[in-house]
């Protein structure tokens, strides 16, 4: 009776029974002051932002992987697999040389004169011949690369080859590029293996269109002409001096025969070697292999241009090959031609010069060092008897206007 019921009951401290007031009291606030909860909003925002960034990165990685897989599948499927050559070579396995014990690899590069898709460089007669052939020798220790050009007009022994349309060619002595016309890559490989005495481990065929695509993919290749070039058949007019050729111009340049050097096939091969050396230098020096924007069109051009044996017909194998070649110092990449001279029975054909050719082939068979000097330089004379010969050629380091 008479007690003040407005205050807290006896025994209660201020704010007991009211959680909010207890918090206020604990915080040193007096009754009646508004409570302020500790804010969790900044931490929540950070968590949401982290989740969003993580999800975005995951989507980016998935998208990147998807694009990479798409291009890998596209480039990988571009390559034409030549399984027919492997089946044909299997018939002659007993007569073929054994693979190199040193781990050296020999790849035959065949430039087909097929004019499919172009009429600028002559009419297609329906019979393909090897317009150029290069035996690429990768040393077992991968410390050097030798690219050996085989003249198209070199007189060689061609075995009895099965023709694609039926029948056989019969054994004969004829110019080298007839072997491709007679029996395709299998016949050409058999000729090269008999000639050099070393096994051809892989082969690659490139036609006119493929060559042009590769040159255009690297934005052209630099050459140096000692005099102006006028070639009516190729509709090509080039000034003297340094210049960069696009794919169409480059094809006319490396194939021209009558408009330069008095129609000499020897000088034409020199031009082809210098062009290949300049192409290698362009790819290595401009960072093409490490620039995705430039690598993608190059891979597309290269893979769509190639017909290769099954072991070399995937992008993974080609990448391994490019990686190996790129690791070789440019001064150790040698382009040269087999020693030859005019054929004794026909000056318009070639024959091997012995014993120099035999010694060069032996060096390739045994994976020995090929003594080399750039064209225009004089080789030091060796006084000791029986010293191996010195061969002249081109490297990517050479000045194209020397």
Defining traits:
402 residues; alpha/beta; Aminopeptidase; seven-stranded mixed β-sheet; two-stranded antiparallel ribbon; 19% strand; globular; disordered N terminus
Oligomer: single chain
**CATH homologous superfamily assignment:** LCP protein
- Quickly count the domains: 1
Mean pLDDT: 76
Structural class: alpha/beta
Order of helices and strands: HHEHEEEEEHEHEEEEHHHEHEEEHEE
What kind of sheet is the major sheet?
Answer: 7 strands, mixed
CATH top-level class? Alpha Beta
Count of runs of 4 or more consecutive helical residues? 10
What's the total count of β strands? Answer: 17
How far apart the termini lie comes to 124 Å
The CATH architecture classification is: 3-Layer(aba) Sandwich
Q: Explain this structure to me?
A:
- With 402 residues, the protein is an alpha/beta fold.
- It has one domain (79-374, 387-393): Aminopeptidase.
- The chain is 37% helix and 19% strand.
- It is built from ten helices and 17 strands.
- The strands form six sheets. A seven-stranded mixed sheet has the order 1-12-7-2-3-4-13, with helices on both faces. A two-stranded antiparallel ribbon has the order 5-6.
- α2 (41-78) packs parallel to α8 (292-305) and α5 (208-217) crosses α6 (247-255).
- The longest helix has 38 residues, at 41-78.
- The radius of gyration is 35 Å and the shape is globular.
- The model is unreliable at 1-16, 22-29, 64-72 and 115-126 (pLDDT under 50).
């Amino acid at each position: 009776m008479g007690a003040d019921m407005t205050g807290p009951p006896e025994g209660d401290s201020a704010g007991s029974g009211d959680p909010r007031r207890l918090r206020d009291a604990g915080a040193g606030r007096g009754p009646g002051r508004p409570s302020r909860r500790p804010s969790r909003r900044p931490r929540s925002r950070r968590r949401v932002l982290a989740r969003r960034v993580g999800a975005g990165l995951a989507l980016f990685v998935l998208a990147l992987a998807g694009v990479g897989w798409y291009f890998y599948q596209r480039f990988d499927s571009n390559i034409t697999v030549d399984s027919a050559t492997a089946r044909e070579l299997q018939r002659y396995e007993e007569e073929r040389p054994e693979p190199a014990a040193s781990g050296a690899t020999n790849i035959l590069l065949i430039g087909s004169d097929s004019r499919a898709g172009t009429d600028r460089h002559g009419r297609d007669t329906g019979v393909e011949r090897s317009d150029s052939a290069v035996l690429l020798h990768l040393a077992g220790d991968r410390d050097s690369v030798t690219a050996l050009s085989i003249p198209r007009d070199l007189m060689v022994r061609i075995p009895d080859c099965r023709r694609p349309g039926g029948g056989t060619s019969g054994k004969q002595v004829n110019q080298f590029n007839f072997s491709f016309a007679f029996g395709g890559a299998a016949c050409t490989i058999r000729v090269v293996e008999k000639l050099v005495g070393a096994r051809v481990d892989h082969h690659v065929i490139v036609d006119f269109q493929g060559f042009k695509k590769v040159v255009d993919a690297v934005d052209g290749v630099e050459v140096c002409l000692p005099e102006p070039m006028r070639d009516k058949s190729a509709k090509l007019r080039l000034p003297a001096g340094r210049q960069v050729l696009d794919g169409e111009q480059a094809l006319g340049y490396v194939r021209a025969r009558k408009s330069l050097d008095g129609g000499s096939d020897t000088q034409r091969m020199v031009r082809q070697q210098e062009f290949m050396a300049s192409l290698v230098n362009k790819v290595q020096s401009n960072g093409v292999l490490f620039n995705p924007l430039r690598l993608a069109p190059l891979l597309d051009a290269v893979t769509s241009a190639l017909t290769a044996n099954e072991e070399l017909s995937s992008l993974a194998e080609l990448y391994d090959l490019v990686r190996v070649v790129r690791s070789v110092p440019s001064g150790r990449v040698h382009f040269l031609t087999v020693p030859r001279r005019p054929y004794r029975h026909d000056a318009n054909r070639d024959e091997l010069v012995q014993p120099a050719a035999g010694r060069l082939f032996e060096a390739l068979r045994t994976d020995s060092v090929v003594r080399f000097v750039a064209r225009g330089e004089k080789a030091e004379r060796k006084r000791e008897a029986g010293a191996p010969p010195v061969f002249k050629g081109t490297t990517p380091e050479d000045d194209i206007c020397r």
